[in-house]
Amino acid sequence: MSTEPLPSPWRGLVDDAAIFPPGDVPLAEAAAAHQTRRSDPYADLVGTFVVKDLDLPALKATPLALSVVITGGAGQIAGTAALARKLHIAVEGVEIALRDPDDPVGNARRVAAAVDAARGEGKLDDHVPVYVELPHVGSTGSWLAAADEVAANEFRLKFRTGGLDASAFPAAPALAGWIDAALDRETPFKCTAGLHRAVRHTGEDGFEHHGFLNVLAATRNAFDGAALDEVVATLEEREPAVLVENADGLDRARRWFTSFGSCSVQEPLDDLLAYGLLEGT
Fold first, then answer.
1. How many distinct helices (H) and strands (E) make up the chain?
2. Rounded to an integer, what distance in angstroms lies between the CA atom of residue 45 and that of residue 42?
3. Orientation of helix 212-223 relative to helix 228-236, angle to 10°
4. Whole-structure pTM over 0.90, yes or no?
5. pLDDT tens digit string along 158-188?
6. Which one of 23, 85, 108, 160 is most buried, by most CB atoms within 10 A?
């Protein structure tokens, strides 16, 4: 068994979201599998174990590093952080979606106030990153203004790149705009859903799925100054050989594209091995 660390572009790339659709693995089973992966040859590929705030009581004193999804509004942040501290659970990330598409800026400010209060009361450590998912409405003026609020509070962005229906999959121009907005604000981001495979493809559900290799390359290209249409073309590239041939410098992208949540860890690993981006053991 190899104990060598993985190349930097792949370390901590996949957050284990096995309990979420379409995987829907029972919590206890998913937690046990995640713990087992920590001793696998490719353990470095896996980041946090993503759970809902409602799951915390079942994970009392867990040794797992968790990213906690707030299922309600900003008012749940302090209580969730306090409960995790009481249960001796290590929280390494907080994720919350803005639920008011008519006023995302005001919603973002409420999240900021709640986080400030939780940190001021010693319930949430200052170093824990907060990921804010903006409403999936494209890069409109209100979306960009909400992104400004996220950046001003030194939070991070969260992009939903898939789901159970077609509307959850952003078109390549929209995703390119989100990436550009994050880089313009020097704001790291993560993605969630739909990125099980490395390369863009049509899924069994009939939807166009983004590839995590496409997103990494697009982020690197945008960071290097590529025009928006070039970033879109990278996101739309469907030929694995083209992406693999241009995989140099992806570590630069990881400063901004921190990870993606996936209900499968095995599928991303299989693709990295199949395309020769990781060595087999």
1. 10, 10
2. 6
3. 160
4. yes
5. 999 999 898 899 999 999 999 999 999 999 9
6. 108
